[in-house]
Amino acid sequence: MPKRKRESAVENGHNESSSDQGQKGGQDLVEVLPGITRKITACAACRKNKIRCDMPDEGAPCVRCRRRGLSCILNRSLQSLIEDTKNVKLLQTDVTHLHDTLDMLCQHLGVEGPKALRSMGHDREGSSPPAENDQNQTQQEEEGCEVSPPDSPSAVQAPIDTFLDIAKIRSPHSSDSPASARASRSGTSSDLISKGIISATVAERLVHHYFSRLDHYLYGIGGEYQGLEQLRANTPFLLAAICTVSALHHPQERVVYEACNRELRSLVAKSTFEKRDVDYIRALCISSFWLADASRIFCSDAIRRAADMRLHRSFDSLFEDRTGLGSEPMPSEPSPSMQNLSAATDRVRLWYLLFVCDQHLSILHNRDSLLRSDKGIAVGWELYLHRAETTESDVRILSQVSLLLIMGQVRDVLGSDNQIPLPPALASQILNYSRQLDKWYTKFSALFVTNAFIGDFPKRGLQLHYQFGKLYLTHQVFKGLCGRPVPPHFLSAATMAHDTAVSIFEMILSEPELQEGLVGMPHYFHVMIAFAGHLLLEICQNYYEQLAIKIQDDFQVINSALNLFRNTQCIPQHPIWRMTPGLNRKLHGCAASIGVPVPSTVPVGGLSAQDAIPGHEALYYPQGPGGEASQPLDELLFADFGEFNFPDLTSNFMT
């Protein structure tokens, strides 16, 4: 018995004479991991037989297991847990020091810093601690997500409405729904400034720049908010979108743009299954018009939410007579939210902007539009135009709606997703659409006035959109030719395509308003300008003899435009910066294939001419082996124009 007591004392790692010391050590361990204080010294075989285990200082195997050839396993699960806890604490400290050092290096080099450590007990950007995040996540999982779409956007009862009523599911339109509660918790807790992403001074400058200039390129979509404090208090999402777009158009705000863009995408990603308000749709719309890399994602989400909110039905509340404007009946009485005429007008304008954005993306990416063009709100644009309350911005929006309805017909009739040559019978259709475009321009050119913030850009923009429409119509005659001569019945349209492309660049070179707006206009302009240059060079390369084209004159026009683009101050993420090297290479390739001299003022390596701008800090990409400027991988995302191919003319002209 004394022997067993002695063994027990050894196993417990202390004896009676060292009890005080053991108690002190146990207290230290309790601070690390409460309740685990045993130190294991005997192997499993000896413990099983309840005999003494003579373990050498160097570790297993013990004397008995070595003598008998047994497998000596030291079960140190409890002790290992204690030691591992200590090691984890040390590793956390080491990783924190490495993270801080790396962050300092990134700030010194002016590159993107590392992401915040998730292993720490708190987040550096002011987010909730892990325990709180886990609790919120569990709560959200228990609440579930709302049915998508929650109910029908139409005025008549739909099958989903019956299901929601039978299943007693609360409507997401109610303020006490789980989605509303989550949106309220997450949408008002923090913003760009409170998270430390940008300072209040920088945010104030970005917001002022947006509302004093950029917002007027997009018809005053910003709404009633005109200051930073209003945005912070009411809609952090709209603040993130405005700051991101504004930073994109400032030549010295590259780092700010990258930080704001990351935060904006994170906010949108986290809000996928949450209900948001009209200002959230406004933020998505702003982002879609200017941020090319994620434009389709923003627009698709905005259209889905607009349908759930029934924005298109706000059109009904503005007019009592809807005869001939669609199949949807007039609601018996407008909802309480529609009693406010100003709110209804704002919703209608927002729907029209979503329609414009959707049609733009449909043209740029050769895909079907998401919004139907035969809805009453779309075909009833003239009724809205003739309202007494119609503003200058309304006229500009409706000019786009009218133009894109014509271009949508061109897409549907002539096709945009195949490479089959057009049949001769469509020559008359092309002429008919050309006349419709002429009438459109004549109608709206008389209605446009000078804008107090961006001058005559609306008038110049109208002319440019007219040329874009002609270009989109007439380029169709080159489909499926594969270098073969243009058929005689399409020669006039082919000549019009060439002349239109030249006119686009001549307008840019001759109109100061367009030159000033190169950094400010939505990305649809830049993509269509880039395509005009690409199409013009393809026509010069393949059809200069048949169409009697003066190649040197066309090359000189593009050469001058390239010089203008290079001398335009912008950050590398801006479309102007990103499309110029591709057009430059296309020009050199076209000149080489024809065998004519390359314009001497166009450098092969890209944007090196920016250093000619006094006071402009040029940002260069490292030179690749071929002498051409290489770009970061994420910049190539803007070149998502493999589907914007206008078949037979595919070229990666944006990189």
Describe this protein's structure.
With 655 residues, the protein is mainly α. It has a domain at 146-309. The chain is 56% helix and 0% strand. The chain contains 26 helices and no strands. It has helices at residues 2-11, 19-32, 44-49, 63-68, 77-109, 130-143, 159-166, 178-187, 200-217, 228-234, 236-248, 254-270, 278-290, 295-309, 314-318, 341-365, 376-379, 381-385, 392-414, 427-445, 457-474, 491-510, 512-516, 523-543, 551-566, 575-594. α22 crosses α24 (523-543) and α22 (491-510) packs parallel to α25 (551-566). It is globular, with a radius of gyration of 33 Å. The model is unreliable at 1-36, 121-145, 171-188, 321-338 and 602-655 (pLDDT under 50).
In a few lines, what is going on in this structure?
The protein has 655 residues and is mostly helical. Helices cover 56% and strands 0% of the residues. It is globular and about 105 Å long.
Descriptive key words:
655 residues, mainly alpha, 56% helix, 0% strand, globular, transcription cis-regulatory region binding, Zn(2)-C6 fungal-type domain-containing protein
Mean pLDDT: 78
Beta-strand content: under 5%
- Main sheet overview: none
What gross morphology would you assign? globular
- Give the termini distance in whole angstroms: 86 Å
Are there runs of 5+ residues with pLDDT below 50, and where? 1-36, 121-145, 171-188, 321-338, 602-655
Number of strands: 0
Structural class call reads mainly alpha
**Fraction of residues in helix:** 55-70%
User: Helix tally?
Assistant: 26
Rg: 33 Å
